[in-house]
């Protein structure tokens, strides 16, 4: 089976660079799988779980907080704002952070503060879903 070259890049470093069977990306229009020969596309990435599939190993699941994905027929590159291994997500900590973000919505003094708090609530809700 042909492989697609996958790279996951954060602002700090190159996190993953390997040949894989398939990558499932949480796009803003819905999750999509990338195999070798995929049509070229560039899209936004929403907060969610990115899956890296290889036939001989377990699927690797990473939570990405958003970013951009570029796909060519041989390559898939995700520029992620943040990436965390799903197994490292701490439910108790996330629930506390979600509650704090909800309180921040109530305590916001202007639309900008309210918007930041609402974005945080959405992010922590997605992280909690991924932690299941």
Q: What layout of secondary structure does this protein have?
A:
Elements: E1 4-9, E2 14-20, E3 22-27, E4 30-34, E5 41-45, E6 48-54, E7 57-64, E8 67-71, E9 75-80, E10 83-85, H1 91-107, H2 111-131
Parallel strand pairs: 1-9
Antiparallel strand pairs: 1-2, 3-4, 3-6, 5-8, 6-7, 7-10, 8-9
Helix pairs in contact: 1-2
How would you describe what is shown here?
It is built from two helices and ten strands; from the N terminus they run E-E-E-E-E-E-E-E-E-E-H-H. The protein has 132 residues and is of the alpha+beta class. It has two domains: 83 residues, Sandwich (ATP Synthase, domain 1); 42 residues. It has a five-stranded mixed beta sheet with strand order 2-1-9-8-5, with no helix packed on it. The longest helix has 21 residues. The protein is elongated and about 55 Å long. 21% of the residues are buried.
Core attributes:
elongated; 132 residues; 5-stranded mixed beta sheet; alpha+beta
Order of helices and strands: EEEEEEEEEEHH
So, CATH architecture of the largest domain?
Sandwich
CATH fold-level topology of the largest domain: ATP Synthase, domain 1
Q: Unreliable stretches, pLDDT < 50, 5 or more residues?
A: none
In short:
The protein is of the alpha+beta class and 132 residues long.
């Amino acid at each position: 089976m042909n492989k697609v070259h996958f790279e996951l890049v954060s602002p700090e470093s190159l996190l993953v660079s390997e040949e894989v069977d398939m990558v499932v990306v949480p796009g803003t229009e819905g999750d999509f799988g990338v195999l070798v020969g995929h049509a070229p596309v560039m899209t936004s990435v929403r907060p969610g779980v990115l899956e890296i599939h290889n036939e001989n190993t377990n699927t690797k699941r990473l939570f990405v907080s958003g970013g951009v994905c570029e796909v060519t027929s041989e390559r898939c590159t995700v520029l992620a704002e943040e990436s965390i291994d799903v197994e490292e997500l701490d439910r108790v900590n996330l629930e506390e952070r979600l509650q704090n973000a909800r309180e921040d919505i109530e305590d916001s003094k202007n639309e900008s503060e309210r918007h930041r708090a609402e974005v945080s609530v959405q992010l922590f809700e997605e992280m909690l879903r991924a932690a299941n």
